[in-house]
Amino acid sequence: MRSHRDKRIVIVGAGIVGASLAYHLSAKKAHVTLVDAGEIASGVTATSFAWITAAHCGSDPISQLRGAAIEEYRRLEAQVPGLDIRWTGALSYGADAHQTPPPDGVLSANLVSRARILELEPHLKRPPRQAMFAAQEGALDAVAATYALVGGARQNGAKILTHTPVDGFISKGNQVIGVETASGVIDADVVVMAAGTGIKMLTEQLQTPVPVTASPAIFIRYKARPNLVRTLISSPEMEVRQCADGTLLAAEDYLDNTPENRPQAIALRTARAIQNELDGVVAIEAEVACVGLRPMPEDGIPIIGYLPQINGVYICAMHPGVTLAAVVGRRVSEEIVDLKVAPALAACRPDRFFQAD
């Protein structure tokens, strides 16, 4: 009988969630094959604002999971070469700044004065009277982080197959035992679906569609001079952060596809807002302005766990994927390899969509 540590695991989707799964599972000596229809990090990961935060507005059924996100990234950062995170802290003010406190034991944001705000962000033209500052938060280059995790998985013995779409599944009774690709069948004891918005289509092939929809958002990269933004700023006027090379990143809500709300038009409006809010911004040029399609479960809660009715299929669909990638990678690897059920994933099980009427 095959040892649970000798499990053959196929992960479908090489975004940051799939890469984290591949790293954690291969670290436990599972036989991992990571497949993707395109390149590594070529999906929504490439258009992520990549804010690592434990904060959340309103009630939060995954507060325990979200609360462990920062700690798990710090653990991964120490383990994986090339996984560089900018722990700049996040400065929030305006209507969305009053967030539900994180779980006990998780560092929370502090209310800071205008004087402290100007110490943190000296280029703000109109600093608010007060703001929330979460010193423990940060952000990463999601594409570079994905490649670093894939590199770690490869060193652990994982096999990486890009440009390899999954065309179907091989089943024996109600057990999935492999995936079909143009290159042939890949045998599996467990198939983990981490393909973002593609998960619905994949599960439809198994007659158990998981309700994941595409939630659009606008992602913008600007060419700007360095040291304009020191933290991550989230305000009614702008949500921006700056990379070490000076690239300024912004995130905006998707409105519609009318000409005035297409990505390039929004990028121009956001650039004007940044110029109005920050000293020293004479001109900034949008290098990238595009729509990213985030995988959004129907009820907004991540879908993580074994698919009911069909054995051997494990689902990983979530937003925010970047924030949760490290903690989910660890917890899922413990469930699949160590057979250790994760209480933090209790609210995330796919079973909730397949209850008998």
What distinguishing features does this structure have?
FAD/NAD(P)-binding domain, alpha+beta, 8 helices, 2 domains, 6-stranded mixed β-sheet, D-Amino Acid Oxidase, Chain A, domain 2, 20 strands, about 350 residues, elongated, 8-stranded mixed β-sheet
Poorly predicted runs of 5 or more residues: 98-106
Mean pLDDT equals 93
Would you state the CATH class of the largest domain?
A: Alpha Beta
Q: What is the CATH superfamily of the largest domain?
A: FAD/NAD(P)-binding domain
**How do the SSEs run, as a string of H and E?**
EHEEHHEEEHEEHEEEEEHEEEEHEEEH
CATH topology of the largest domain: FAD/NAD(P)-binding domain
How many domains, as an integer?
Answer: 2
Query: β content, as a range?
Result: 25-35%
Q: What CATH architecture label of the largest domain applies?
A: 3-Layer(bba) Sandwich
Strand order of the largest sheet: 6-7-5-15-16-17-14-18
Secondary structure topology:
Elements: E1 8-12, H1 16-27, E2 31-35, E3 51-52, H2 63-67, H3 69-79, E4 85-86, E5 90-92, E6 110-113, H4 114-120, E7 130-134, E8 138-140, H5 142-155, E9 159-161, E10 168-172, E11 175-181, E12 184-187, E13 190-193, H6 199-204, E14 212-223, E15 232-234, E16 239-242, E17 248-253, H7 263-277, E18 285-297, E19 303-306, E20 313-317, H8 321-336
Parallel strand pairs: 1-2, 1-13, 2-9, 5-15, 13-20
Antiparallel strand pairs: 3-8, 4-8, 5-7, 6-7, 10-11, 11-12, 14-17, 14-18, 15-16, 16-17, 19-20
Helix pairs in contact: 1-5, 1-8, 3-8
